[in-house]
Specification:
The chain has 197 residues and is α+β, with helices and mostly antiparallel strands. Helix content is 44%, strand content 14%.
Length: 197
């Protein structure tokens, strides 16, 4: 069941520092199992996402919605596979490389504190560049973090993905409220029922 766009806020309350996770979470299931939400077509979400991750597209550039949805689904599959400890296949790498290669890049020398540095920038600020940047974010995440730190909320009705930054990687829920409290209450009631039988 899809709920209408007006049923959900455009901006997430628990964003990630990784563009790949924020894009994946633009499609999520309601924490009570009431439906699936998709923020991707929401203009306020698009604006928020681009600003949050330092991206931009040309004025009037419309998001290729079907292509972005397909990319998001492929990205979710790759991150789910990797975070479960499975080896990525050649097909997974081809998908990532396809997204990264779709944007033309040029090199430019800039000064950073008086020191010349080589920077890469897009030839065109468009949605291909956004997808390339998001795919690069996923590669950076996989290269810098152990797989067990990329998790999906332990609430079976919630699909929210997050990067666990706790010291001992013990975080189970996207957030303590509502998912953490909801599941702890369910577990407590389940233990009480089992204790009575």
């Amino acid at each position: 069941m899809h709920m209408s766009l007006s049923d959900v806020a455009a901006i997430p309350t628990h964003p990630s520092s990784y563009a790949c996770i924020d894009l994946v979470n633009s499609r999520f299931t309601d924490y009570l199992g009431r439906g699936v939400h998709d923020r991707l077509p929401m203009q306020p979400w698009q604006t928020w996402f681009l600003r949050r991750h330092g991206l931009r597209v040309g004025r009037g550039e419309r998001m290729p919605l079907q292509e972005m949805r397909r990319f998001r689904d492929e990205l979710r599959a790759v991150l789910d596979k990797w975070s479960a400890g499975h080896r990525l296949t050649a097909a997974d790498l081809r998908r990532m490389n396809h997204a990264i290669a779709a944007a033309e890049v040029r090199r430019r020398v800039v000064l950073d504190g008086g020191v010349p540095e080589l920077h890469f920038e897009p030839s065109t600020h468009d949605w291909s560049w956004v997808m390339a940047s998001v795919a690069s974010s996923a590669v950076e995440l996989m290269a810098s973090s152990p797989p067990e730190r990329v998790k999906t909320c332990a609430n079976p009705d919630c699909s929210w993905m997050f990067h666990d930054e706790t010291l001992n990687a013990s975080r189970r829920f996207c957030s303590g409220q509502p998912c953490g409290n909801l599941i702890r209450i369910r577990e407590f009631r389940d233990r009480q029922r089992r204790g009575r039988t």
